[in-house]
Amino acid sequence: MLTYDMEKRGATPIYFYLYKCIKSDIEKGVIKPNEKLPSKRSLAEHLKISVMTVQNAYMQLMSEGYIYSKTKSGYFAHSLEIPFTVIPNKNIAAIPRKNTSEGDKYFIDFRDNNINTDIFPFSVWSGVIRKVLGEYGGETLKKLPNAGVKKLREAIAGLLYRFRGMEVSPERIIIGAGTEYLYGLLVKLLGKDKIYAVEDPGYGKIAAVYKSEGVECRYIALDGYGLSSGELIKSDADIVHISPSHHFPTGIVMPAGRRREILGWAYSAPERYIIEDDYDSEFRFTGKPLPTMESIDTQGRVIYMNTFSKTISPSLRISYIVLPAELLERYNSSLGFYSCTVSGIEQYALAEFIDGGYFERHINRMRKAYKTKRDLIIKQIKDSPLGEKATILEEDSGLHFIIKLKTDLNDREIIGMVKVRGINISCLSQYGNRQEGMQNSMFIINYSGIDMDCMAKAVEILADTVNHP
Amino acid sequence: MLTYDMEKRGATPIYFYLYKCIKSDIEKGVIKPNEKLPSKRSLAEHLKISVMTVQNAYMQLMSEGYIYSKTKSGYFAHSLEIPFTVIPNKNIAAIPRKNTSEGDKYFIDFRDNNINTDIFPFSVWSGVIRKVLGEYGGETLKKLPNAGVKKLREAIAGLLYRFRGMEVSPERIIIGAGTEYLYGLLVKLLGKDKIYAVEDPGYGKIAAVYKSEGVECRYIALDGYGLSSGELIKSDADIVHISPSHHFPTGIVMPAGRRREILGWAYSAPERYIIEDDYDSEFRFTGKPLPTMESIDTQGRVIYMNTFSKTISPSLRISYIVLPAELLERYNSSLGFYSCTVSGIEQYALAEFIDGGYFERHINRMRKAYKTKRDLIIKQIKDSPLGEKATILEEDSGLHFIIKLKTDLNDREIIGMVKVRGINISCLSQYGNRQEGMQNSMFIINYSGIDMDCMAKAVEILADTVNHP
């Protein structure tokens, strides 16, 4: 039985102290890969703490990928050998994304990553804009600092500290009109002669932007822990673009060990950089999020980036990057002449929205609403005839999850059959880019923008399709 | 004496008919280069029309570069041999632009191209934003069409028709967050393997953006009519970026003949394009502006671009390009995935501002205010001891003019001497990029943002500097 001296925890909360002890034992190999952990009840009795405390510690370890659970068997330490089988499927052409939310052709669209703007406190937002118009007046018309308005960069620095425990000086933050614009800026900063690695499968626009910037792009496969560090090391990439806090489309949260391996890759040669795309990190539903790679980076090799498109609205074009000191200097001397791409009024409004505490309240409300919505959808699937043909893969994070169907039909057939009945859905293999071409019956449910009234019918059609081929 | 049958003019206004007749005679060589035109009075008597009508026709011909005037000698047909001497000066390093309007170090800043935001009807603008917040509500949060909001593209198409006589369908308009962003988009569209030609001297940021996009850049010299078509033909450029309606810093308005020569260059090989940067065209003070190159282009080789930074505020990051049909198709298939970089609320607000007629009223008001300001400054210079040492070069257009000083000091000395006395000013040769290194005592007066209360002192210091070396 695991034995830790709980008295030594000092001011640390009990659950967090226990989590740290177990994590350290897994890292040191004291607890072996796939070794079973004591049950929550027995460990609680052994350490004279409550079951709930052990439960919280286990949840945190799960959320960071240190342990996994098997139904009715308990908890086990993770092993680096478990692969997350993602096999790209070249037979299904990538369906081009719609330009606008036309939505006419489908009664439900699981490809639509629009956020639920009903939850957004529009009256607060419009109040903040009115305040800016009234109080800042003509000041909002003046030429903007190229890296963005000081007040907004300070507000973001505060947000990063409170949400992500990051200590970032506002000078290191560069504001830009959307992540796609910032990817382009990073290519100019890091060099067009560099080779950029992206996740495979992954969010298609990332590779599309790199390609249209004219740089070489490598697709790196994932395993159960996210981007394979082994494949990355074997590649000739200089820059790697990853989303460790929640990968699209697999939903993988990259565990601490893998993060360290990728940092190690960056440190092992000069001019290697990691772009940490934290686009979705606000929507972690349980446990404390893992620290960002930026905050554990000691050599200035991580560029952190995030956006307000997912948290506020896709029509608000405000994103940002955080540059390490050396790159910041390079940026200021070679690219500092670029004018800021975000209008003054919206920069001031967002700063006020953050400083007024509205942003954090909004995130908490969204997190609750999305968790409820997601739980409801998963329950609806499990309780339906689809339930026994479906496995839900998710890590309590982000605005989408994966449904794996037991079926003889291939991915293309499923997509085609439900499409004619009004459902737009995509499969995991569509997001793969290498040649190995196969299919794995995994489909992506983007749930943030969908109408719950349509779910019952959608579940029925999916069940129907899987059961009567 | 020139003789035209005024009865043949049909519905055309008399002045415009006369202008067209004379223009045609100059183009055909009936009127020879440097030939003197009849005086306004004698031509009016001869044709039995009013002196004012002849005056208007002559003004239009002047503004398009067909004729020029010599004080007390009258009007003459232009000759292609008159060079506008612009000699780049490598000895003066390009002074980096300030990031923000710090303005502390100088009591007057002739390098500052900030617009006069006092003239901007901020209350109308903020009213329009309030209206959008109230009437559009949550609609403003929805995902935007990638090329920009339809309503704004329609409003811009209307504006182009009313201001510039251009017939452009809204589908051809792509909205983006500032011209620098759009230059980058054009490089992706036209190709990184192409060679881009820019004006020398010219607005430094244009070449800087092309260079940071990693494409090859050629500097093409100017003569009295703007970018030299001869030099362009001799170069290996594929794309040329010009501002024919008002060049920075020389202020040259490219005459019709030169525009046709450059169109001819584009037509003479496939994949040659002209980027017509019309950044400043709203501020033409007299005469009808020349038609845009886009509107006389018959082969789809002109990309028109313009911005609202100069007309509304530098903090409003909204610019646009108008693509010819073939490039539009290419754009949609290869770059159509790029998200729009301008936020929804500001796109709707600008559309309302244009549709409500506020934009046009604002431009008229600004044009008057700037003309008054410019005339006042020029008068102040002429009436001062500086007057006899200075020649003002301007073409009744744009937000800057050139002052040529009679002095034994070189440009660097002048700039340094006035700088210590609180004046920030730049010289024409600083904007040149080729090696020929010399100076020509021409200085640029950006007057739009300066404080008139400081002008008297600035004129005194300049006179002092020139007169007492």
Layout of helices and strands:
Two copies of one chain form a homodimer.
Chain A: H1 14-28, H2 40-47, H3 51-63, E1 67-70, E2 74-77, E3 108-109, H4 122-136, H5 150-164, E4 173-176, H6 179-190, E5 195-200, H7 204-212, E6 216-223, E7 226-227, H8 229-234, E8 239-242, H9 256-267, E9 273-277, H10 293-296, E10 302-307, E11 319-322, H11 325-334, H12 344-355, H13 358-383, E12 390-393, E13 400-405, H14 411-419, E14 423-424, E15 426-427, E16 442-446, H15 455-467
Please characterize this protein's 3D structure.
- Two copies of one chain form a homodimer.
- Chain A has 469 residues and is α/β, with parallel strands linked by helices.
- The first copy, chain A, has three domains: 6-81, Winged helix-like DNA-binding domain superfamily/Winged helix DNA-binding domain (Arc Repressor Mutant, subunit A); 108-115 and 363-466, Aspartate Aminotransferase, domain 1 (Alpha-Beta Complex), CATH 3.90.1150; 134-355, Aspartate Aminotransferase, domain 2, CATH 3.40.640.
- Chain A contains 15 helices and 16 strands.
- Chain A has helices at 14-28, 40-47, 51-63, 122-136, 150-164, 179-190, 204-212, 229-234, 256-267, 293-296, 325-334, 344-355, 358-383, 411-419, 455-467, and strands spanning 67-70, 74-77, 108-109, 173-176, 195-200, 216-223, 226-227, 239-242, 273-277, 302-307, 319-322, 390-393, 400-405, 423-424, 426-427, 442-446.
- In chain A, the strands form four sheets. Chain A has an eight-stranded mixed beta sheet, sandwiched between helices. In chain A, strands 12-13-16-15 form a four-stranded antiparallel beta sheet, covered by helices on one side.
- In chain A, strand 5 (195-200), helix 7 (204-212) and strand 6 form a beta-alpha-beta unit.
- In chain A, helix 4 packs across helix 12 and helix 5 (150-164) runs parallel beside helix 12.
- The longest helix of chain A has 26 residues, at 358-383.
- The first copy, chain A, is globular and about 65 Å long.
- In chain A, 48% of the residues are buried.
- Residues 80-103 of chain A have low confidence and may be disordered.
- At the A-B interface, helix 4, helix 6, helix 7 and helix 12 of A face helix 4, helix 6, helix 7 and helix 12 of B.
